[in-house]
Amino acid sequence: MTQALPKFDPRTKLVWYSLMIYFALLSQTAAQLGITLLVCIMSSLILSGSFKHSKAMVIILLLLGLQILIIQLLFCREGTLVYQWGIFKIYSDALPLAITGILKATLIFYASLQFFTSASAQDFTLMLIKFKIPYRFAMLVGLGVRFLPLMKEEYQSIIDSQRTRGLKMDSVWDDLKAIIPTFLPFLYRAVRRSTEIALAMELRGYGRTKNRTFSSEIVLKYYDVVLIASMFLVISLSIITRLLPLI
Amino acid sequence: MKVIAKIIIEKLKFPNNEKPVLKNINFEIKQGDFIVITGGVASGKSALLHVITGAIPHYHNAELTGTVIIMGQDIKDMPLNRMSDYMGYMMQEPDNQIISLNVYENVAFGLENQELPYEQINQVVKNTLEFVGLRGYEERQTSSLSGGQAQRVVLAGVLALKVPILILDQPTAELDPQGRQEIYKRLGELNNTQNLTIIMVMDRVEEVLNYANRVLMLKDGEISKDYSPREYYWAQIKYQKELFRDSRHYTLDSNKPRESIAKISNVSFLYNNQLPGCEDINLEVYKGDFLSVVGLNGSGKSTLAKLLIGLLKPAMGEIRLFDQIIAKRNLSKILARVGFLFQNPDHQIFASTVEEEVGFSLKLRGERNDNLNQKVDQCLQFVGLADYKEMHPQRLSRGQRQLLALASILAGDPEFIITDEPTSGLDENQGYMIMEKLYDLSNNGKTILLITHDLAMAKDYSNRLVALYKHRIRLDIETKDIERHREELKAIGLDFPNTVTFKEGYDDTGTSEV
To answer: What keywords were assigned to this record (chain B) (predicted)?
Structure first.
């Protein structure tokens, strides 16, 4: 099912992401936001066939949602007073505003996750090259994706190593005290690693000319063009309908 | 043979260092040479490679007096990123040279920089991957490669450049014997069939002697000897006879009940990605044991060690250390009696002086200052770093940092010492010296668990040998019985191929048979 679907160009994904962010920021009602979020979720389901990558997001959004709800209940002063207990007052608009806020945050978060997990680092690099970003900068995305997990793994090894030497890391206070013996080796390693990576790259001819070949390339297909044009049309219509009453 | 490089280094000095790193170097490299460079810790091996590749003076800040001519060109006049027309350089840690997310992209990296057309890149990448035995790995994520595969991907990336000179800094340091043999065989093939010039820094020279035609020995930044492989072999035999004991005898009475230090019962462990780390492990370590755990890369040796000291929690089974089940509440108490030497010393070094680094664990235990200083001095003396106690640890060579890590462990006076590949990054003699130190500690009543790929070293120093294969224990024998189990060891990829083929190559008159 997934394989049968066309592989969208990263530029198409970027326009889709921008469209979602645009609606998240401009929609004012829970209904509008709910529909946009549903469309966004449905697109993920159709393209990837599962919600697997969204699992971690649910916990974060629940915590964020709870925070928004508490803030609105405590500080919202719009609408009519519905409950009072000492200085603690709840107004009628607190709950709708909290729901709108939660939906906006969810939509922005979900669309970001959708965009950053659907395009590969190579696709990002090629997209930046198409936007005329020099390849020395564009390729940093791929390098980051390659080395961040390695560095995370290395930090864990450093922690393990220091724990076996007797460094306690049982409480937050212990963790704070352990920053120097754990972070300094990490820093030294990071410097050593980056020096070696840069040297390895230069010695394989990196940066010798202004341009370089890439063994894969991205090309806008007809369906990408149609989708991008449609999304721009939607954004244009939305802007026009918002601006017309002002003229 | 045609001279393709001429190296004349009068002096190489790094800023803030009074002593030159290299001096009075003068040698030529001929096309088709297979040169092995060796020497003790901080002898200047890697610095010499950096000079030949042009990394010094173009990349590292150093003061170089001399001339380095590669294929008729002075490296001082050549930009570093043009060196890929003449040579390929493979450094020690493969992880730091794998730049791309998949194998194909990584091998193609240098070719893309040369702006070759896509079809040509495709052809070269496929051929090179086939040559290094990784055909079909094109789309494989580089993060999922084993150490040996990663090493071969880096080699493929360098070979794809089709350069006349190949420079390798300990290219097999992280590989098991099987992986090392594969790499040497392929390099020898390239040297023979394509007249590729190879310059290689090696800590275990004997493994590659059958392929090399010259061995340069560095000492204090100078070439102290320029050997033929045969001369080197006999010099080493003589040196080791003088330096080390001829044989080691363990006088363990098998009838006497022995105190158990660690007991692992039915232990299994699964990593987060559901790959097995260890399966159904049963092992008992006794006081005074010098136990070697051997196995190929990925067989579960390091996982076993981490389970043993509570860094990993078994999915099944029970682990007892000093007759206590390992749990969070008693872990720090148990670890105070255990010393763990990790493979990479840089994962623990943080202090600003060598003596501060060694005293760290003692400070954590609240040791008094006078006692602490005395212990630090003793440990530094033991590993031969007493002269460096005021130095910043990051200024030490990789081998010296490994010795420093060992001194830091010994400072805590542990009863049970676990060492994960303690000789990695050390030259041959330094490696044997570390093993001798461990042997002395074992004779003084310490229990040693050595994790190694090196079966010859395990055979020479330990009294007991445990072989892991595909995460399970396949053999648990006394080392003196090793010859009887040779076939079983061979079946799981463990043997002494290097020592044997090398010795077969040269008879005792020093005449080469090959």
So the answer is: ATP-binding, Cell membrane, Hydrolase, Membrane, Nucleotide-binding, Translocase, Transport
pLDDT of residue B321: 92
**Quick count: other Cβ atoms within 10 Å of Cβ B339?**
26
> Distance (Å, rounded) from C-alpha B407 to C-alpha B378?
9
Ranges of chain A whose pLDDT falls below 70: 1-6, 49-54
> What is the C-alpha separation between A72 and B310, in angstroms, rounded?
46
Identify all chain A residues contacting B118, using CB atoms and an 8 Å cutoff.
213, 215
The single residue listed with the structure tokens 């990584």 is: B106
In terms of Cα–Cα distance, which of B314, B376, B360 is closest to A161?
A: B360
The residue with tokens 């990349």 is: B59
- DSSP class of residue A87 equals T
| pLDDT value at B304 more than 80 | yes
Write out pLDDT tens, residues A113-154.
Answer: 888 888 788 888 999 999 999 998 888 888 888 888 888 888
Return the DSSP state at B73.
Answer: E
In the block, tokens 């158990």 appear at B260
Written as six digits, the tokens of B394 are 């990051």
In a domain, B287, yes or no: no
In a domain, B237, yes or no: yes
- Please check whether residue B286 is in contact with residue B432, taking contact to mean a CB–CB distance below 8 angstroms: no
B374-381 contact pairs (CB < 8 A, 24+): B375/B411, B375/B413, B376/B411, B379/B407, B379/B408, B379/B410, B379/B411, B380/B354, B380/B355, B380/B407
d(CA B193, CA A73): 79
* Closest CA–CA distance from residue B495 to any residue of chain A (Å): 30
Stretch (H or E) spanning B465: strand B464-469
Residue of B nearest to A161 (CA): B348
Q: Does the structure's ipTM exceed the value 0.90?
A: no
Q: What is the pLDDT of residue B108?
A: 94
Q: Which residue has the higher pLDDT, B378 or B183?
A: B378
Q: Write out the H or E segment, with its range, that includes residue A90.
A: strand A88-91
Range of the domain at B201: 3-243
Separation CA A114–CA A52 (nearest Å): 12
Which of B93, B96, B347 lies at the smallest CB-CB distance from A161?
B347
Residue B250 pLDDT > 60: no
Which residue has 């943080």 as its token pair?
Answer: B350
Does residue B65 lie within any of the structural domains? yes
Burial annotation A133-150 (CB, 10 A radius, 16+ → b, else e)? eebeebbebbbebbbeee
B186-200 pLDDT tens trace: 899 899 998 999 999
Interface contact A200, partner B, CB < 8 A: yes
Kindly state the tokens that stand for B114.
């040369």
pLDDT value at B377 more than 50: yes
Per-residue confidence at B314, pLDDT binned at 50, 70, 90? very high
A213 and chain B in contact, CB less than 8 A: yes
Start-to-end Cα distance in chain B = 21
- The whole-chain average pLDDT of chain B stands at 85
Alpha carbons A242 and B277: distance in angstroms, whole number = 60
What is the reported pLDDT for A3? 43
Report the C-alpha gap between B136 and B152 in whole angstroms.
14
**Cα–Cα nearest to B212, from B223, B220, B201:** B201
Burial degree of A152 (CB within 10 A; 0-12, 13-18, 19+): exposed
Distance CA B368, CA B373 (A): 9
Phi–psi pair at B61, nearest 5 degrees: -80, 105
Pairing of strands B214-219, B222-227: antiparallel
- The pLDDT value recorded for residue B450 is 94
State the DSSP H helix or E strand holding residue B127, giving kind and residue range, or none if neither.
helix B118-131
CATH code of B225's domain: 3.40.50.300
Q: Is B108–A185 a contact, with Cβ atoms under 8 angstroms apart?
A: no
- The answer to whether residue B396 scores a pLDDT higher than 60 is yes
Is residue B81 situated within a structural domain? yes
